[in-house]
Structures are given as structure tokens and as C-alpha cells.
Amino acid sequence: MQLRVRALESILLEKEYIDPAALDELIETYEKKIGPRNGARVVAKAWADPDFRRWLFEDGTAAIESLGYGGRSGNHLVALENTTSIHNMVVCTLCSCYPWAVLGLPPLWYKSAPYRSRTVADPRGVLREFGIELPKDTEIRVWDSTAELRYLVVPMRPAGTDGWSEEKLAALVTRDSMIGTGLARQPQEFAR
Amino acid sequence: MRALETVLTEKGYVDPAALDLLVETYEKKVGPRNGARVVARAWTDPAYRARLLKDATPAISEIGYAGRQGEHIVALENTPKLHNMVVCTLCSCYPWPVLGLPPVWYKSAPYRSRAVSDPRGVLADFGFTLPKDTEIRIWDSTAEIRYLVVPMRPAGTEGWSEEKLASLVTRDSMIGTGLPKSPKDIEDIEK
Amino acid sequence: MNGGQDLGGMHGHGPVKPEPNEPVFHDDWEKRAFALTLAMGMPGGWNIDMSRFARENRSPADYLAMSYYQIWLAGLIDLLEERGLVAEDEIEAGHSLHTPKPVKRILSPADVAKTLHRGGPTERETNTAPVFKRGDRVRAKNINPPTHTRLPRYVRGHAGIIERVIGCHVFPDSNATGAGENPQWLYTVRFDGRELWGPDGDPTMQVSVDAWEPYLESA
Amino acid sequence: MNGAADMGGMHGFGAIGIEANEPVFHAEWEKKAFALNMAIGVANIWNLDAFRFARESLPPSQYLNLSYYGLWVVTLENMMLDYGVATKGEIKAGHAQAPVKKSKRTIAAADVANMVLCGSPYNRPAPGPALFKVGDRVRARNIHPKTHTRLPRYVRGHAGEVTRIVGCHVFPDSNAVNKGEDPHWLYTVRFDGRELWGEGSDPTVRVSIEAWEPYLEPA
Asked: D137-218 domain in CATH 2.40.50.140?
């Protein structure tokens, strides 16, 4: 595969379809700059600021853009609110749609056949593999990203975090908690 | 492969002579010539045809064919208005006693996936086109019922012997992916 | 199971490629795989539904990349290992390393013809009456069992007509898991092509499947 | 198309392979494969839906056995051939062979940030009023196009509820085969898990998809 990619790169460079510096910039952007820390800041702000929270659930794209995140795979963002009775989970059964703007590139498991095949039919079984057992009567809402809408799960704010700064709260927000395959960290975990 | 056979033989679970006999049976003895004889008789003997279409298993066993993967056989009659085609979308069910073991294409993903949704496209892969208004019935062998298509008798074969007729009946014509040979095809060979 | 084997209606597998003058077997190992599978049925003690489940119960990625007899072989090895008849290290070594497990009978050459002729009839006596009769409108239930079933995905939820009441037959969904033969009435159900494939489906085609009573409801 | 990409509800793929501290890329070539696809996308030789269609059109056995970025690479090669960007000989040689046709549009490094930030919105002016409103019961049509569609098999024929009118968006079924953007109203539709997977399934599950108006009919 390495050789095949090198061949394609050479051809496209020689034909001037691409600029080599742009390639480096793209890699740098998604490897270093855009990642789940973006989403974590969105979630932390929603936890700390009721007005922002309201706005986020009304118009996710605009609210998230106000923090400087948007664009590619994030032009139409919808925030999903986890509550004590509803748990949201995101999947793309048809390919690998994912809110790049707030979560970066998806992990391998998100793009894998086991996750894509089972999440819509057996979300509890999938959650169990992530070490999560939800109460039996929690409603599970699975969102299959079949169009250009991208979903960001806003996990529940852990108890015992009253008065925490947004920055400190953001440290509790894991990538998986924003996909719905995890929960936010507990303050005691954070202390450790 | 050889490793597994050695292990099973050493453990005494299988008798190598029985293995050889199994291979020989399906490689040499049981094959589509069996089905061709059934079809040829149905073409020449109206009473047999009626018995075959009513209850194929005993009618086929009259000629001496029965057993594994043919415990419950149903014969399907092609007519000018109706064309039957057999597939097994879930695995590779096939009427062994009358047709032998299935060809690779019958067991392949292209055939199994498309026969039930695009039979005319599949027939085109076999190089033949049915009239546009012919009804096509596809039989997906999901249980232990095995289907044998009885193709239409070609014109110009009046008075032919059963044996000669049988030589017109191709394997594919009994699956529904082909038609029998025409008398001309045979004459060409004889010449 | 909704596995790699449930191919009806899938796209992307390309054209059917008939092979002129195809031999019965393409290689010697295929002959052995075929014969071993048939010969092990007796000492192994499994039934045909268990064999089918053993073959389909693997990653669709593997199932679709394997040849026909490779799948048979993989299914056979799984069954042998599950039942402790052969261990993984023995298959690796290519020799028996552990004491064989006692089995009831093995297939002798003298029994081959008789066994093949007898086959494995699946019809059973019953004192129940069939719920449906010829001509009834029925709907294939929307079931998605993770274990063996003979109701293909492409007919589930769709309505058809009972074309034939076949008889009372061993129920594979039960037989495959070792839960007994649990015989059920079996029907041939005919579906209109457009019912299965939508308004763009070929109006001249009809598809029949054989369906056990638990797969069906009145439509 | 009912291809290997349409995985929802399939069995047999096994457990989720969760990797602790997974890196963004697993090999240098993956970074290049990713960046090449992004950069060539800007040249606008093909659209994203056409690229998705090409990717899912690979034979299922190949699709399911390639790694994620491996799939991108193979698809990129196929697209370059299909759209005349390169010849088979060039791909084999790994170099452009004369005469080199220069592209009109390339992405410069300076544009990357802008491209990442702006993305490529898919909403378009509406050609007419939306047929459905929030709360309407709708049924996903039973369609089986051989070309690209974003209506997964597992919802077809099933009834759900409109929970959001997303807007008017480019219709992938048309865009993927270069028949124009043909924008249609897009809805979020929520299905009950038992409607999708049968009576015995988990009653607490709801599944939402986005569906364009041509995918839906009143239920």
C-alpha cells in the first residue's frame, strides 16, 4: 500500500493536481490541530453556560462556530443531549461520517464493520464492549449519519463539579463520551 | 487439507476407502445425465410427466435416483409463458441425485445475489434472452425441498427415442439458466 | 444470522461466470474436503443445520473471500474443535496428538451407497394441522436472529401467497442450535418481484421460498 | 446499492476492536492517502457522492478485506482511471507520462486552513415546500437502486416519525452518478427498534437516519 500511495502522489504532483505543501498542511491539521479537544470545549461550555447550552441544542452549527469550529464535515452540526432517561449514540452504517470539525478523524473502531453493523441493532451489546452498562429502562437513541448532518453527543455533566472552570470541565470530556460510546470522566478519576 | 485427513484417519473417525468411494460417486456416477433421463421420459410419456409434476420424489426414484440432497424433490414445468429458475441464496442447495454436485457459478456470490432480484440480467450472463412478457419464477431453496426444472421439449424431435432426447437436456436447462439443445446442435455434432 | 451467506439481492458481486466444461472438482484437496465433510457427519453427530451454521458463522469478510470448499473445510474444522474431536494443535501438526474421543459409528465403504441413497429426510409425523392453506396471503415476519435461520433478509416484512403446503419438517432454526428438531409446517410462499424489490422491480418475476410456519403471519 | 458498505444489522463481524491510545494515523502512507484524497477533492474532478459510490462498488470481498485507508487508495486509483486523470500505465509506473495535462484548480498550502474551516455545505435553495412536517408518520420506501443511495437496507419498508426538517440538500442518488445536484428536502426520521428488528428486540432502542424526500412516503 505504501508503494501504491507513493505512485499516486508522484503522478498527482507531476500533473500539478496537488501542491505538496498543501498535503503536509492537511496532515498537520488533522494530526495535530483538530481533534476531540475541540468538542470537549464545546461540551464544557454547554455545561457551564446555560445560554450557550440552549443555543447549542437549537442551532448546533452556529453555536459551535462561535467557538471557532466548523467547516469540513461540520457544516451541519446537531448536538444531542444525554439525560438520565435518554442516551444518544452516533454511527455511520454506510461509510464513516463523523464530525471532524469537533472530534477530528474517527478512530479505527468507528469505521470498522463490527461497530457499523451492530450499533443500530444491538447498541447495548456494543456499549458493553466499551465497559458501559446503562440502566435497563434508559432509552437509547442511535443516530445513523446517512446525510451531511454531523452529530455531537453532549454527555451528562458529572456530579461534584460545581464551580469548575470550563477548562477544567473540558478535561472530563472524552472523545467516546461525545460519540456516545463512553461517559464523561468522574472528578475523582481526574484527581488521580 | 492433507493434515486434517491424516488426523481424522489416525483417530479412526474416517475410513479412507469410504472417502475414495464418496469422491468417485459424485465425480463419476451421479451427474446431470440422471436428470436428463428424467426429463426425457417426461417428454415422451404423458403419464410419467403427470406423476413427476404431481410428486417428483417417487417419480424420480422409479428411474432409480434418490437420496442425499434429493429427499424431497419438486419438478417445475417450463411453458411458453413461464420460465422457472432455481437458486439457493443462503448456501448451495441443489438436487444432487439428479444433477450431481453444483458448478462453481451456482455457488458463487454473483449468482446467489442476483438470481432473485435480476434474473433477466443473470440469464443474459448465460447468453440468452427470454421474451419480455414471459413470467419468470425463481425458486430459492431455503428448505430441504430440491427443485428440478423440466425445460420445454424442442420442436422437431417428434418420434425421437428417450435416449436421443436425453442428449438434448443440458444441466443448465434443468437449473433454468439455459435451454435444451436443439436437434440441429446434435446433428452438427453427428456430422 | 444476517451473515455473509445471506446474499439475495446484494449488489457488487459482478457477473456470473459459467465455466465451460467445468470439472466436478477443481483440485484434489476439494475432493478430500468434500468427502471428509460427508464422512464425518456420522461420527461427528452433528446435523445438516449445524453444518450450515458452522459454515456461515464467520466474518462476512472471510466468508466472501473464501472459495466454496474452503468454507466447507473451515466449517468442518470449527465443528471438530467445538466438540473436542480434534484440537487446534493437531490440525497444526497434521497428526493425531491426543487420544481420540469415542464415537458411535464411522462410515464404512460398504455403507456409502446405502447412506447416500437414504439421505436425510426431514419430513416428520405431526398431529397438528397447518395454520395456512394454499392461496392464503401471508407476510414473512421481520426476524433477525443472530443464529441460523432459513428466512432470507430480502423477503422479511414482505407479503406473498401460499403456493404449496409441503408438510411438517424439521425446523432448522431450532435444529442448528441443538435445541431439537421441533418440526413445523413448511410452505412454499410466492412473492411478486415488485413486492420484494419495489416499483422498479421486474414485473414479470416472482420468487418462491420455502418457509416454516414460525416465519409467517397472516397478511 | 446493496453493497458491502451497507452494514447496518449484519451479524458475524465480531467484537469492536477498541485500540487504547489510538494514533490518528497508523502508518506514514495513511497520512498521504488521507491528504491526497482531500487535496484532489478540491480539484473538483469528481464529487464526494461519486467517490463514495466508487468506494462501495468494489466487490464486497475486497471492500471487507481492505483497511480503511487501503479502501481510499484503491478507490482513488479507480477514480483516477475512470475520470482520465491517469492511465493504467502511469499508475503502474508511478509517474506521469507525457503529455501532462495541467489541472486548473489545485489547493495551495495557504488554502488548507480555509478549506478546513469552510468545508463544502450541501444545503441548497428549496425548489418547493416540504411535503412532510415534524411528527408525521412516514415509511421508508422499498427501493433497491444499483447505484449510490443513502437509504440503508435495514430501514426500507419500515415506518418512523419525522423529528426534524433539516433543509433542502444535494441528493446523493443523483449527484453520485453525475446527474446533477437535484436538491430535495431532507428529514431526520426516527424508527422504533422493534419496528426495525422485530418484536423480540430491545424496546428501549430508537434509530434515527437522515432521509431525502424521495426515500419517503406517508405511512
From this structure: no
Q: Are B115 and B106 in contact (CB under 8 A)?
A: no
Residue with cell 433543509: D167
Say yes or no: B108 contacts chain D, CB-CB below 8 A: no
CATH placement of domain A35-191: 3.90.330.10
Nearest to A107, CA basis, from A94, A92, A121: A92
Residue A88 in contact with residue A80, Cβ under 8 Å?
yes
C20 domain residue, yes or no:
no
Note whether A95 contacts D: Cβ–Cβ < 8 A.
Answer: yes
What are the domain boundaries of chain D? 28-118, 137-218
Task: Identify whether the C-beta of residue C61 lies closer than 8 Å to the C-beta of residue C5.
Answer: no
- How many helices (H) and strands (E) would you count in chain C? 8, 5
Query: Is A177 noted as a catalytic residue in this protein?
Result: no
Measured CA to CA, the distance from residue D51 to residue D41 in angstroms comes to 9
**Least CB-CB distance to C109: which of B17, B119, B142?**
B17
Those chains having 3 or more beta-carbon pairs within 8 angstroms of chain B are C, D
Per-residue pLDDT tens digits of chain A, which is 192 residues long: 889 999 989 988 888 888 888 888 889 888 988 999 999 999 999 999 999 999 999 999 999 999 999 877 677 899 999 999 999 999 999 988 999 999 999 999 999 999 999 999 999 999 999 999 999 999 999 999 998 889 999 999 999 999 999 999 999 999 999 999 999 999 988 765
Architecture of domain D28-118 in CATH? Answer: Orthogonal Bundle (1.10)
Q: Dig out the grid coordinates for A151 from the structure.
A: 452529530
Residues C105 and C184 in one domain: no
In Å, how far from its chain's centre is CA D178? Answer: 15
Chain A contact partners (≥3 CB pairs within 8 A):
C, D
Given CB atoms, is C108 within the 8 Å cutoff of chain A?
A: no
Q: Does A132 touch chain D (CB under 8 A)?
A: no
DSSP D15: S
- Chain B residues near residue C200 by CB distance under 8 angstroms: none
Contact of B123 with B100, CB cutoff 8 Å = no
Where do the domains of chain B lie, and which CATH numbers do they carry? 1-30 (no CATH), 31-190 (3.90.330.10)
Domain end position, chosen among C118, C148, C166: C118
Q: Same structural domain for residues C95 and C170?
A: no
pLDDT digits (tens, 9 = 90+) for D139-193: 999 999 999 999 999 999 999 999 999 999 999 999 999 999 999 999 999 999 9
Domain count, chain C: 2
Q: Which domain holds residue C161?
A: 137-218
Give the CATH number, domain containing residue C166.
Answer: 2.30.30.50
Which pTM was predicted?
0.87
Yes or no, beta carbons of D16 and A76 under 8 Å apart: no
Q: State which residue of chain A sits closest to C2, comparing Cα positions.
A: A117
CATH number for the domain that contains residue C93: 1.10.472.20
